[in-house]
Amino acid sequence: MSRSTLEPAAPSARVDIIDPLVVNPGRLCILIALAESEGETDAPLAFTDLRRRTRLSDGNLSCHAQRLATGGLIGIAKQFRDGKPSTTYLLTPSGRRALETHVHGLLTVVAPKSAPALRIAEPPPSADPVLTQFDSREDDWVD
Question: Where residue 22 sits, what CATH number does that domain have?
Fold first, then answer.
């Protein structure tokens, strides 16, 4: 083997678009499900509905949702209804911006310049990339 095959490739200038809190498949599924539910109703999404939409196990859904809430991307409300615990989830404005920034960044990289239908508009200037402070050492499990 030559030395050049062992050296890592130079990082892309677009790697900065990747927010480790958003890019995780389980958390991305949660953000997408909550964004979709916003178009259907303004009401928060119940745990059981979010679990059905994401197909995550109860434990994975709870852990990923807690990480997103800690990052300010979703809101979680816990209450009792008819003596039973009820948990609901809502996408925050920061969560919406983080998801839009993630999608825009990916489309910027993969969409050819000649295919404007695949490209989305730039996020508004007020929607600067919302990269959360996230310690990847805490995210050591595999989805």
Answer: 1.10.10.10
Model pTM greater than 0.85? no
* Structural domain range at position 21: 15-107
Q: Tell me the C-alpha distance between 45 and 37, whole Å.
A: 7
Paired tokens of 18: 């990747």
Q: Is 58 exposed, middle or buried (0-12, 13-18, 19+ CB in 10 A)?
A: exposed
The per-residue pLDDT for range 119-136, each reduced to its tens digit, is 555 555 554 444 444 444
Q: Which of 6, 33, 17, 34 is closest to 93 using CA atoms? A: 34
Residue 102 to residue 27: CA distance in whole angstroms: 12
Total domains in the chain come to: 1
